[in-house]
Amino acid sequence: MPDSTHALRALDVSKTFGGVRAIKGVSLDIAWGERISVIGTNGAGKSTLFNAIAGVFPVTSGTIELFGEDATRLPTAARAKRGLARTFQTSRLFEGLTSAENVYVALGGTEFSGHLLRSSRRTPERWLRVEELLDRVGLSGRGPMIVADLSHGEQRQLELAMALALQPKLLMLDEPAAGFSPAERQHLSALLRDLPRDITLLLIEHDMDIALAVADRVVVMHDGEKILEGSPADIRASERVREIYLGGSIDDAA
Amino acid sequence: MSTLPNKGEPITTTPSSPASKRRPILWVRNRWVLVGLVVAFAVLFPWLVDRPRFWIPNIGIRTLWLGTIAMSLVFLNKYVGLLSLAQVTFAGIAAYGVGYFSVTLGLPYLLSIPIGILIGTLAGFLVALIAVRTKAIYFLMITLAIGQVFFSYASQAIEVTGARRGLSPILREDYGFVDFRTLEVFYYAALLAVVLLYLLCHYLANTSFGFALQGIRDSPDRMAALGYRVNRYRVAAVTFAAFVASVGGMILVFDRSQVDPDVVSLGSTLDVLIAAVVGGVGSLGGVFLGAVVLALLDNFAQDFTERYQTLTGVIFIVVLLFAPAGLAGVGGQVTRAIRKRRDRAAPPPPEHQEPQAPVPAESAIQKGNQQ
Question: Which residue ranges have biased composition labelled Polar residues (chain B) (predicted)?
Fold first, then answer.
């Protein structure tokens, strides 16, 4: 029964890849405006869960409700139109375009289907929005640069700008801090904390740093299952999480 | 933090520096200056040659239709990342449309021309519905297969296509205010159509639609995640390219005065592909360079060798080896070569001259991130 108190409800979702059960009956509810981090080691099923919610592949069983509507069978583009934005773990930016053009394209998916055949030069208000978004993620002045010339950190920032371009209700970030320097991590963490509260956030992080700093609630996955759920403080104190992240001291990381 | 310039050019962090990376040194800076020069040459061309009766149709008009069909291929390849081998087929279907409606049914050309273009475009739409579900080599194979199916059909369906004999005569007419029977009038009308098509392609590439196509070329997954219905855009692009090819088919059919299976043969497909590659698959205008080379070879290679097809092949290979971006990409290649030599000849200035040495872009970027 769909309800509209949750931005996302994943119910008993399983996904099998050629006999390998990547996620096994995972349920996840996210209230409007809530910020959730999903953590776990490599191979825990985080990304599979993420892609299932984004609609990259159909789930083997279970249901996914988005914004109070059954979205289990909706294609990716339809989920995006309903207000779901995602970033990609490995950058899949538009390599042949500039940063500004990348964001411009991102704006187009949901925004200006009516002006499809108007010259881009005649859309100053959209280029202004592009500038705003670039400023917001800390890429001021990088607009004219070809994506291939951006640093790794800047490419991740651009990812975020493109996701925000959708004015999402639910923003899903797939390891946004991968390959970041400590300084870049802090910058990103501040940026995420400053996001308006009407954006529901689902963060997948291999690293605990940002995951615990940003989230209201943390979900721990291991071996395709959800094993723990709680506040960042609970997770920090958990023996089980310590075991999983063998040797890594959580207190140091946080 | 050390501010040693990195191995490449030391880019200072002025606001204009990112753009300057793309700007060529030697080549004409403004695309439109170049386009204007080429068009001016094309306009003057009939007066520059010794035998207009020979040059206008065999080199001029042939270049125009071959280039237009090749341009439709390049549009798809450059902006959507699809390599279609069915562009000649769409042009041919449009040409058969004119032949069928005018030769067989007796409709005036002023009606059959738009009908022909419409049929060619529609064929593109239908092919696109099937073909866009495939990618890369599979898209290429499926368009090739469709082209061959139509070739077989054209060679055999005697009631519709006239089979091997084809449909003829398809003759240019005198409309009172313009006399298309005159070669010059036909040439200039074709040139005008081609220039308009080029501008249209260029315009489209710079619309939201065009940017979306380029996004799909680079990362279809992300485009879907951004809310784009990727396949619809691909279908629209293939349909548009079929329209461009169909207009090329109109020039072709009135140039040949007939339409027969040769028009849609594998040989014609290869001609278009060669024109596109020699001219440059990354350049809408460059294909006309490729088309003119091919037209010249077709007409003159026989004068000094019996193996003119071998010569075409050799030229094709030489271009692929030494100018992978085609003749249109030579300017950029020369620019890069000069830049490289200049950098080697003049290493970065010694530091004592300028204590506040220009900050390399990359370290400045890192600084920006840390703030």
Answer: 1-19
Sheet of strand A200-205, all strands in order from the earlier edge strand to the far edge: A84-86, A170-174, A200-205, A35-39, A217-222, A225-230
How many other C-beta atoms are found inside a 10 Å radius of the C-beta of residue A253?
15
pLDDT over 90, % of chain B: 55
pLDDT band, residue B20 (cuts 50/70/90): very low
Can you give the C-alpha Rg of chain B in angstroms?
24
- The token pair at A31 is 């209230």
**Cis bond upstream, residue B169 (ω within 30):** yes
**Paired tokens of A209:** 């740093």
DSSP letter (8 states) at residue A146: B
A-B C-beta contacts closer than 8 Å: 125
- Contact assessment for residue A70 and residue A63, using Cβ atoms and an 8 Å cutoff: yes
Q: Which domains does chain B have, with CATH numbers?
A: 24-339 (1.10.3470)
Cβ pair A117:B207 closer than 8 A: yes
A190-201 per-position pLDDT tens digit: 888 888 888 999
B343 to chain A, closest Cα gap in Å: 19
Count of beta carbons in the 10 Å neighbourhood of residue B71: 31
**Nearest Cα to Cα of residue A101 among A138, A136, A126:** A126
Query: Does pLDDT of A250 surpass 70?
Result: no
Q: Domain spans of chain A? A: 1-83+169-254, 93-167
Task: With CB atoms and an 8 Å threshold, state whether B369 touches A181.
Answer: yes
Chain A residues closer than 8 Å to B370 by CB: 183-184, 187
Report the alpha-carbon angle B126-B129-B134, nearest 5.
130
CB-nearest partner of B18 from A93, A108, A145? A145
Please report where in the chains the tokens 């037209």 appear, as a residue: B295
Inspect the interface and report whether the beta carbons of B221 and A88 lie closer than 8 Å.
yes
Instruction: In whole angstroms, give the CA distance from residue B221 to residue A80.
Output: 12
Judged by a CB distance cut-off of 8 A, whether residue B176 touches chain A is no
Superfamily of domain A1-83+169-254: P-loop containing nucleotide triphosphate hydrolases (3.40.50.300)
Q: State whether ipTM is beyond 0.90.
A: no
| Distance from C-alpha of B77 to C-alpha of B6, rounded to nearest angstrom | 35
pTM above 0.90, yes or no: no
For the record, the structure tokens of B145 come out as 């297969």
CA-to-CA distance for B150 and B261, rounded, in angstroms?
A: 9
